[in-house]
């Protein structure tokens, strides 16, 4: 066994036995549609910050953030766990982060260095399966259902991957192993940092039932607040709702909520996806009465969009920024401009332009970016400021 495998024990939901299940089509699990798959979600712990601490060991043990300068309206791209203890998180304004932790060390991103580490990590993933779906520079889904490595054990594969990342790249990674993408991603956060969590098919039901609804894929702050107001705090609570009731309150997304709260996710791991845009949007009840109300909601939408861009590793592909408005009369309008950095003030200006085309109450707001080819290594990260 590789020495790196022993750095931290892994966690298995519902049992203390450190053994693995080799899943196959005969594994009893009525709640998920067949076939039962073996999915790994793996991502590195505070990736940018970990690379910086690897290259400068004097940074270890100190609150560290990678991001833009406070005097240039920069924001935090990521931070280490020492910084998180002060309440600092990604997409937070650097100025606010420094108020929470005055001795915070802030360094600008080095995207070329992170891309080199990313290529090493992706090479490791691809030695176990061709079905690798990257979500960001360091994060990916792997479908190892058909893999014969490690005797077909998804848990042993995940252990090996984590050990190889540590030995090759010099940083730690966490992984979740489950029968679908949704549960695997939740599981990868369960024992961070440097952890592994296995959720067997027969354990999915209880595991998901206890999750707060905000953990559901696609549920942002606004939707979570609406669900809480309607009496659904956990996925178990949400299961008491019929499909028709969920669709009444949340439209087409209601069907997705109905499946996810039961641990059902039939999405396949795809290595051929080419994104053309990334966006986030929210429907508001009651309608937003005026422009001031719309502008007040931009920061929340911007934070959600920023997180999605980072998870997709699309910081270097942004070509345009846009906002979408659906008015109370269901008329829609979109305003966009050329830009490679999704600056919050630009979104505010676009929102102003779009709203004045038909000044009236608003039902839906959205922010997004349109993507092109990956830019050169000099392309600024999402969270850097042009003066950095």
TrEMBL record:
Binds 2 magnesium ions per subunit. GO terms for cellular component: cytosol. One of its GO terms (molecular function) is DNA-directed DNA polymerase activity. It catalyses: DNA(n) + a 2'-deoxyribonucleoside 5'-triphosphate = DNA(n+1) + diphosphate. It comes from the Bacteria. It is found in: Cytoplasm. GO terms for biological process: DNA repair; DNA-templated DNA replication; error-prone translesion synthesis; SOS response. Its EC number is 2.7.7.7. Its cofactor is Mg(2+). InterPro entries: DNA/RNA_pol_sf, DNA_pol_Y-fam_lit_finger_sf, DNA_pol_Y-fam_little_finger, DNA_polymerase-Y, DNApol_IV, IMS_HHH_1, Rev_trsase/Diguanyl_cyclase, UmuC. The record marks 48 as: Substrate discrimination. Keywords: Cytoplasm, DNA damage, DNA repair, DNA replication, DNA-binding, DNA-directed DNA polymerase, Magnesium, Metal-binding, Mutator protein, Nucleotidyltransferase, Transferase. Poorly processive, error-prone DNA polymerase involved in untargeted mutagenesis. Copies undamaged DNA at stalled replication forks, which arise in vivo from mismatched or misaligned primer ends. These misaligned primers can be extended by PolIV. Exhibits no 3'-5' exonuclease (proofreading) activity. May be involved in translesional synthesis, in conjunction with the beta clamp from PolIII. This is DNA polymerase IV. It comes from Zemynaea arenosa.
